[in-house]
Every structure is written in C-alpha cells, then in structure tokens.
Amino acid sequence: GACAWILPCPMQQVRPDEQVLPTDQLGTQLDPPAHWNELGATISDLPPTVSLRPLVVIDISQKVAVQPSYHAQVADVLDWESAHGRVPAGSVVMIRSDWSKGWDEYKGDGGPVIPGVGLDCLRFLHLNRSILLHGHEPLDTDSTPTLEGEAWLLHNSYMQAEGVANLHQVPASGCLLSIGFAKLLGGSGGYARYVAICPPASTGNGVSIIEAPAAPLALQSAPLVRGSDGVLRPTSGAPLTQHLSDLEVARATHTDET
C-alpha cells in the first residue's frame, strides 16, 4: 500500500533543490477506499464520527515469531472473544504482530517477509462484527500476490490503518482509540496518528494529562536548525534569532500581576 492508485510512485524532480514524493501513503497512515477505488470515499469525505472509537487489540505476535508470514485468522478473533467478549460493533481492531519492532532492520535489508491479515478474517470482522476498520503494523494488509485483503476492503468501501506501532504497550481491551489525520481535499490517504486512551490501572505505559499537561510545551535544549534531510533538530551552538533573544529576556523579567 505504499503508492496511491492515482499517482505514480517514483520521485519526480521539480527543481534542482526540491523534490516532491507523489504519494500520500507513507509511514503510519489511514487508507480510505479511494486509495484503490476510483468510486471510493477520499480522506476528506470521512465523517467526524471516526475520530473516537472502542479499541480491540488482537495479539498474533507469538504465532508470527514462529511463522513470520503468518496472517491473522478468524480463529484469532474468536480466541480474543473467548477472553474479552464479543468484538464491539463500530470498534477499531488492531492486529498486533510486533513486526514494527524491527523497523530499523527492515530499512537496511530492503523488504522483509511480512505478517498480515487473512481475507476470511477481514470479511468476518466487517460482515459479522461490523467493525469500523482494522489496523496492522506492516505497510501492506497481506502478502498475497494480488493483495487480496486490501483489494476486498477498499473495493467494498472499508478503511484500514497501516504502519501502526507500539501495540505491545496497549491492553487487549478496555481502551478507546483517538484517530487524527490531515483532511487533505480529495486525498487517497495520508499520515495518521492513533492514540490509545486507557484506564490508568490498565497499563504501565503511556502518559497522563497530569504528567504532560502540554501547556506550555517544553523548550528545546538548543535552537532548532533544519538539517539536509529537512528535519528540524536542536543544534548546540546555533545562534538565537533576535526575536528569541528578546523573548528570553522578557521571560526572565516577567512578574506575575494576577
């Protein structure tokens, strides 16, 4: 699922100092039907009701450890239900494979064998459990020659999440999922952020609002400088702009008048 159906995949040269990657399908992403379906909904067509849903995490990581190409089956869903109850209608079902833990290694070897989600499993989740969408850690739904699972989903007007990580830190049930994405007009997909909202006692991972109120946000350790890769990073020794120098003086001399 790395390339949008309406766009070519290779990098296109715009000018000597600028390149545009003609795809909105990179990294952790949300695929609407238009990713493969010319009659399908685009990412700007998605209603706000997708933003917060019950979360189900089905763990197939032990099976993947034995068989790296393992694809989730209906039996895996039924095993989850035997422990946690019926998969809620309208929920998001994330398939934990732990594939994402090896991302740095995969970048070096050019493409590993991937685990996936079997077509029968996808059909069961949507047609028998009426879920909103499923998600998986690799960048494709399955490893069949025709990507049959992804094809079935998108041509039947279902969405999916790809490139998901950190599912090993999330409980199997009891959480909500916040789904954030850029509403690109007519987009066939795009970057997304999936945040699990869990009861405090359910996991030792994550952070609370008390621990990270986010207002104000912390300052960087040094001025930000954009590197050759386009990423802004704190850079020791970089000079402050006059605006920031004035701001630091203002903060140092500020008194609370309330």
From TrEMBL:
<protein>
    <recommendedName>
        <fullName>Cyclase</fullName>
    </recommendedName>
</protein>
<dbReference type="InterPro" id="IPR037175">
    <property type="entry name" value="KFase_sf"/>
</dbReference>
<comment type="similarity">
    <text>Belongs to the Cyclase 1 superfamily.</text>
</comment>
<dbReference type="GO" id="GO:0004061">
    <property type="term" value="F:arylformamidase activity"/>
</dbReference>
<dbReference type="InterPro" id="IPR007325">
    <property type="entry name" value="KFase/CYL"/>
</dbReference>
<dbReference type="Pfam" id="PF04199">
    <property type="entry name" value="Cyclase"/>
</dbReference>
<dbReference type="GO" id="GO:0019441">
    <property type="term" value="P:L-tryptophan catabolic process to kynurenine"/>
</dbReference>
